[in-house]
């Protein structure tokens, strides 16, 4: 029997039985039965067998499944030894969902789709060998980190490493558009190329002149950003990797741009088809000044990008609206329109209720904590990548007169549950940093020169985390409690410390730093001012206990690191970013990212299969009180946790807010009715801003159905 001929299998039925409480209890053992049945009925009969790993590799090379070059950097004896070591770990998936996701999405299959050609040990080994680039010790270290699920490369990296026919290893891209037709045309081509090779694309449209603005040499007026959005949406729809995936793009606009209301209206359900965007994600950059005007209930002026660039000689995105707002208001040469700040705030809340958009980038907050010389002007498809960009100047021949810098995202994630068990936290992080460094070093996006230039100059990476709620629940700590916030603070401090250590080591080894390092806050040492005080150490007995056995850097350690960085520099311009990491967290059997779980028994709709149920990792009678659904949680607790991590993350964190349309009584003290209102979202956005959170990803609203029987019922069950 092959994968294409699977007949009557039992694992889906067994998995679905988790959702049928027996005597008020969740039958979790059914998931274990489904897992066992999946290997018996699906994996084992269809996994191609070889006499040795050498035979397997030779076959995969001969049949053009994997590349030969990276394999030949190692002796066959070493590969055999590494493979044996990986299998000796006796790795076991902990849930049906984890095993199913790996074998459906990540395991290498035969060309006709009838056989599995690798197991998870093979996929881990190929990742380790590829990213170690011939370094045997690093290959061993990476293999150990991945098989013990302390490190998880991002989906493009984990999926493609070593394969002959593959996409790129990078996760997503960011490009900015300047206010001219050449730049618009080039950026559409860039979007086509980047969508073709994989990953989502974020695009900043803030520099584009508004609808009605004059066009030099023509009697007509500009059409604004909305038609350009439609062009990008069509581009992504067309460039979809032969229909394998929907092209994914996000467009960003500044909140003081005159087209902001038209921009937001494109996502409304009742929008005219001529302007409605169905597949593009929307994000807005929000300077501090907007929060001030909304708080004071004042009018706000929207400023013409065309006027600003003509008057001041810089693109709109690079103009400091907050610092020079009053100057713009007083300047008669700046075209402007007036709206009520709170009316615009309400429009944002209405759209977030209706669609979850727009993403919010608190752009001044991001730039205040940015240690790099330059300006952050936008984010990516998931709102966690925050890096400086420089605009390009393009002539009529579509040639670069000035080569700007755009962004590619090289991501990976720590598994908090397992990394906290690491015998050497620092060694683990250093190996992960090396793996991500290989991705940035070998990334070569020649189709979009500004992306290549940005990557070549910055050597940027983004190491993140997943499994926070899983870790807290398994240690009987409530998400959002003081202990959880303190734990998050120390965990991300350690990630920051060790990535800095290793980036400094690489810079010293190679004699290379990221471009313009000398003008960064790392170079003058001021970045380390808050750390050399020695205040970032565990304080409560509970958190001290959790970090017992792990090295905690003291003031003298930070001072030594500061001095080393000032002397030899850093290789990476950026190091940390926390992505939402969806499907990859299932394989790791932990909660996604650092946000709370949404359901104790999560229900997922899989294509052609139906519903699959996933019990929260570590769910038991013991832990169930600590697995509160995000929808039943005060979102200020989530914001507090993210704010603690933000303190140490040089880029951003993809933070989702989860609310019910009918909110639980007593959850928010300002509520006098249960129905969710626009005021609730406005309060939470302002709370996040005041806590120093850089970005808000989706706002997800859960509509309760009293007649629904399923995961909602399971949430209230007792194990």
* Biggest sheet record: 7 strands, mixed
CATH architecture of the domain at 172-407: Alpha-Beta Barrel
Tell me the β content: 5-15%
Question: Strand order across the biggest sheet?
Answer: 11-2-3-4-5-8-17
Provide mean pLDDT, rounded.
92
Shape: globular
CATH class of the domain at 172-407: Alpha Beta
- Rg value: 26 Å
Per DSSP, the total helix count is 27
First and last CA, distance: 38 Å
By DSSP, the count of extended strands is: 18
Question: Can you give a write-up of this model?
Answer:
It is globular, with a radius of gyration of 26 Å. The C terminus is likely disordered. The strands form six sheets. It has a seven-stranded mixed beta sheet with strand order 11-2-3-4-5-8-17. Strands 1-12-13 form a three-stranded mixed beta sheet. It has a domain of 236 residues: Anaerobic Ribonucleotide-triphosphate Reductase Large Chain (Alpha-Beta Barrel), CATH 3.20.70.20. Helix 6 runs antiparallel to helix 7 and helix 21 runs parallel beside helix 23. The protein is of the alpha/beta class. It has 27 helices and 18 strands.
Quick overview of this protein structure:
The chain has 719 residues and is of the alpha/beta class. The chain is built from 27 helices and 18 strands.
Task: List the SSEs and their pairings.
Layout: H1 11-16, H2 29-46, H3 53-62, H4 76-88, H5 96-106, H6 120-132, H7 136-147, E1 151-153, H8 155-160, E2 172-176, H9 181-197, E3 200-204, H10 225-238, E4 249-254, H11 260-265, E5 281-285, H12 288-295, E6 299-303, H13 305-312, H14 321-330, E7 336-340, H15 341-355, E8 359-361, H16 363-368, E9 393-394, E10 400-402, E11 407-409, E12 411-415, H17 416-419, H18 425-442, H19 449-458, E13 462-466, H20 468-474, H21 482-510, H22 541-546, H23 555-568, H24 583-587, E14 601-606, E15 610-615, H25 635-646, E16 657-660, H26 678-690, E17 695-696, E18 699-702, H27 711-715
Parallel strand pairs: 2-3, 3-4, 4-5, 5-8, 12-13, 16-18
Antiparallel strand pairs: 1-12, 2-11, 6-7, 8-17, 9-10, 14-15
